[in-house]
Specification:
Helices cover 34% and strands 37% of the residues. By secondary structure, the protein is α+β, with helices and mostly antiparallel strands. It folds into 2 domains: 30 residues; 102 residues, Sandwich (Immunoglobulin-like). A hairpin with a 4-residue loop joins strand 7 and strand 8. The chain starts with a helix and ends in a 5-residue tail after the last helix. The mean pLDDT is 82.
């Protein structure tokens, strides 16, 4: 009887050690969410979105704060012309990149690299298409032409009314 107790005790110790190791592995495996890397949650405009006109800016939203060091957003047209303007602006988990004033119609590619608060870089790319757009400078020219046309019509109308013979 004594032999049977001795022979089962080492076996139960082995099982106890294995069970403890399994519990530790599970706790360590599930207990480290802080070591997860940043994840891109969404973009504005969305990937492959069709727009009436090119936006003034593009934004990327992540699941955690992004650092300035190493973060970059480059926006190009289908002709590979860079249309991003200035540096990306980082506000916590949101990275915003402005575009130049004159934005042509067509396909745009946004290539980005972001560095999370834990120092790990992530990167990606998305596209969107702008059907057409009128830049701010074009709107100014259109406005000036409309005002000039109104003035011309007013002057002509006054001139015609003053040149009528009196009866």
């Amino acid at each position: 009887m004594r032999n049977s107790l001795l022979s089962t005790r080492p076996l139960s110790r082995v099982f106890a050690v294995l069970a403890a190791a399994a519990v530790m592995a599970v706790l360590i495996g599930f207990g480290t969410p802080a070591s997860a890397h940043s994840v891109l949650l969404g973009t504005d405009p969305d990937d492959e979105e069709q727009l009436a006109a090119a936006p003034q800016e593009v934004s990327l939203t992540f699941n955690e704060d992004i650092t300035e060091l190493g973060t970059e957003v480059v926006i190009t047209t289908e002709d590979e012309e860079v249309v991003s303007d200035g540096d990306a602006v980082i506000d916590g988990p949101v990275v915003t990149q402005g575009l130049v004033e004159d934005r042509p119609a067509g396909a745009y590619t946004v290539t980005w690299r972001a560095v999370s608060a834990d120092g790990h870089p992530i990167s990606g790319e998305f596209t969107f298409t702008a059907a057409g757009g009128i830049s701010a400078s074009t709107w100014v020219i259109i406005g000036v032409l409309i005002v000039a046309a109104i003035i011309l019509v007013t002057v002509l109308a006054r001139g015609m009314s003053s040149s009528k013979p009196e009866e």
